[in-house]
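agent> fetching stored inputs for the S-adenosylmethionine docking request
agent> found them:
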Amino acid sequence: MARKKKSITDLLITGIADKGKAVGRTEDGQVIFVDGAVPGDVADVLVIRKKKSLSEAVVTRFVKYSEDRVEAPCRHFGVCGGCKWQHVDYSAQLRHKFQTVKDSIKRIAKLNPDLVLPIIGCDQNFAYRNKLEYSFSNKRWITQEEAAGDTVIEQPGALGFHRPGSFDKIVDIEQCLLQDDFSNEIRNFVRSFAHKNSFTFYDTRAQKGFLRNMIVRNSTQNEWMVIMIFGHHDDEKIPFMMTAILEKFPQITSLNYVINVKVNDTIFDREVKVWSGQPYIVEKLHDVKYQIGPKSFFQTNPRQALRLFNIAVGFAELKVSDNVYDLYTGLGSIALYISGKVKNVTGIEEIPEAIADANINKAFNGISNAAFYAGDVRDILNDDFVKLHGKPDVVITDPPRAGMHEDVIKTLLVLEAPAIVYISCNPATQARDLALLNEKYETLAIQPVDMFPHTHHIESVAKLKLRK
Ligand SMILES: C[S@@+](CC[C@H](N)C(=O)[O-])C[C@H]1O[C@@H](n2cnc3c(N)ncnc32)[C@H](O)[C@@H]1O
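agent> prediction call returned; pasting tokens
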């Protein structure tokens, strides 16, 4: 017999937990994650999953709405799953992110939470992204309202974003507020052109269909890149579609296509063919220019990345005589950004293609005092490396969400660079690493920066000084 699900009445939602779920606590201390609620809401909930110390619940009735609730501006909110916090006032989002960083610093790093400086928000909290990846599908996600209504549901192919938890169904997007509206114009044109000409939309289960994915990238320099990804070659349809896109949008700086007949969607192992324009777009942060190719990683919120880099520069207190290591350098964006302010900078990154981009951009900017190495920081940063490049005056480190490997932290503790600037996209792992570095380094300040409004993601920069 199925166990009866537990109801909880009058649950006060108090905060936002990891992965952006709203969280409340029952009188007996049970932690309850609640989808769709906002801190400050009081709700009756039904527990749908119970684990040892926490449970997941859905709202059955709102008793009182939070004062921080706002109308989500996006028409696809709640269906698309892209920006889960749109219904939370932006200043409240910032407050919760700030608190998350403070909590990690106190609870995990065991440091004084007053070290955390007031969070820096985004001036532009929509149209801030420079890259969106759309998918085509012959299975459009049908919303609950559509299913409950009387109108006959048409089922033409969809072009938009994956429905969370559903690998083959796509939410048909009419307007996404995350990228400049030109991205909407391109996407909507491509979809109607495809319908008009009866092109097939990809069937993920059967692994067939002509139109598969579409990537739209742009830069603050108003350069635009479109990459059409086709499920198979077609001598007639590909030129027909690419010509139509270019005729409609001659301002696209880099128009490309890829044939992907593999099972997975990634284009990293596929050849990208340039249909028109340059094989890259150009981004500019202050006086450094970056060529961004179809496969290059680049910070997805460039305006806020500039702020982040400037905070890192300020925390590093760079001098023209400084020798700097930039760990987890990506395509060298920080290393190149600071190269004019220091004597030498050396970047390490595990993805060889990113290092190739770093070298292209080094040449593009005529920079001669930067060097880049491909490999795991854990292996590359060793005695021979330090002998070759000299002891660093400053280490800038920007690891992935998992934080730094323990061995890298041990190496840093032996290396004893006078200053470390630690950029992180995960306050919990940053706090863990600060606690380990605390053996020799004093954390002087932590600056949270919001790079991704309406999501739970937080970036934070820590300033560390070697203890005498
Ligand atoms: C948060 S990104 C930092 C990117 C870069 N600092 C920037 O601003 O563009 C982290 C980078 O670390 C790289 N990475 C992850 N694990 C690594 C490892 N063990 N050794 C070297 N690089 C690694 C990833 O490929 C990614 O480019």
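agent> quick read of the result: Residues 93-124+301-466 form a domain with the Rossmann fold fold (CATH 3.40.50.150).
agent> awaiting further instructions
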